[in-house]
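Build the 3D complex.
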Amino acid sequence: MDPDDARDWMATKKSRMLTDKLMPLEEAVSKFTYDGGYLAMGGFGHIRVSMAGIYEMIRQRRRNLVIAGKTAVHDVDVLIASSVVDRVECAYAFGHELRGLSPAGRRAVEGGKVKVVAELSNAAFQWRFKAASMGLPWLPARIMMGTDTFRYSSSKVVEDPYTGKPICLIPACYPDFAFIHVHRCDKYGNCQIDGTVIEDKELAMAAKRLIITTEEIVSEDEIRASPDRTVIPFYMVDAVCEVPYGCHPGNMPLLYYSDEEHMAEWLALSRTEDGVKQYLDKYVYPVEDFAEYVALVGGEKKMGYLRRLERLEEPLSAPWAKR
Amino acid sequence: MAYNPTELMASAASRVLEDGKSVFVGTGLPIIASMLAQRTHAPNLLVVFEAGGVGPKIPAIPISVGDSRTFHKAVMAASMDYVMSCAQLGHIDYGFLGAAQIDAYGNLNTTCIGQHENPKTRLPGSGGANDLGSLCWRTIVLMRQDTRKFVEKLDYLTTPGYLLGPGSREKAGLPRNTGPYRVITQLGVMGFDPESKRMVLVSTHPGVSVKDVVDNTGFKLIIPDHVPVTEMPSAEELRLLREELDPNKIVIG
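Done.
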């Protein structure tokens, strides 16, 4: 995207007017996401990721999305398995970190159902969003050079006019729509995030449409009482949806830890297409909204356990671990 | 005291790390090795995670390099831009990497087995590996050793080692005086010859012969005249690994 076109987009499609953007998630997804679009998920694959947004896209049967496979873990796995995503720009995808490889994601790529359209690194993806957030066409970086990762990226190497050394130019990335799950925000979309922000400050600025899901809606006064805590200001945001536990089964830092029993169930079921169907028919398709989903995965009792786990008051059990 | 190969790898990796230095760590064994170093000879080892955790007091094994354990009582909960910039600026001494394939120059593949367009096995991709391999002063590779993994030619070059040999990294534009430092497997510890930049055997693990290592390497490994035996994990290291660092045997088995 030409930086002048990006400027035009921000000037005309984003509003600097303080307006109430509260809406049901169903409405936000139907309004701001579309088939064939380029999607980016905030957070870190299974950490502070908007699973609520993902389930809603699955329910609305979005198709043929390209995803920014930046630190993508459970998010991309579920989106691939449910046929929402069919192309991936890959920095990290098809893996579940400590839990091993992702059966569904791997199967889709190895079987040709999903195409990997580019390779890059985590820092490269981050700096693509950063370039966009700065209104620049690219950002220079000293990574990827000399590797196949570079060859499969859309970056270029040029001679730095100052040092004469080769330097990698990483092109800006403006996702068509992005979801970012936050700890709290007001109805206008002024957001606070506790803990590491990963790359969400930059992603929020780069995204053409930004849907915020939040654990909690707070008052504007509360935001204004500590403005240094605002990571995403309202004028980046298109929709605000209140979804407590909206990151389950992922980890919402300082609130609840990841649900490893649920992850184990997914990893076991997603070994086959039938299993994926079983999972979606149980947890996603028949569910009206996220509150119903929370009840289905164990309700307050389970959420209480995950909160204690997060506070290190319970030992972690990892049912997927090899013994 | 009996130990398993993963415990030995954790011990050997932790001993490479020095007190007062910084290390960029990935999921699993690198975290265990770094925590072990902090609890033994390197209490001031600065641990950095790619999601933005800087200098945490890691209370339990994180499942993700982005989860809340990675900034527990940290000096800073920052962003990926911040920590990757720190690495590019020269603040990160060591970086841990893993791989499905490695070649004689320490180049790594974590992207695919077979052709990229039609892979036999699709792997997760670079993640932060290319960044660490490009930007940390020294990288340490932890992986299993056999002839399918230690290969003459990679199926895909994800992360730079010494690329084609001496001077190759600098010629490509990567920061000077950086590159792979140690490769630690279930069989031994390898390093890199300062002249040719090819992999050289540093030590064999107890009970492993030089021939075992050579037989499990798909390229010509440089074998020095004298190859010492890797020091065994101490009783205290094993106690820490089993009782404190990974009591549920999630990583060390």
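The first strand of chain A starts at residue 38 and ends at 41.
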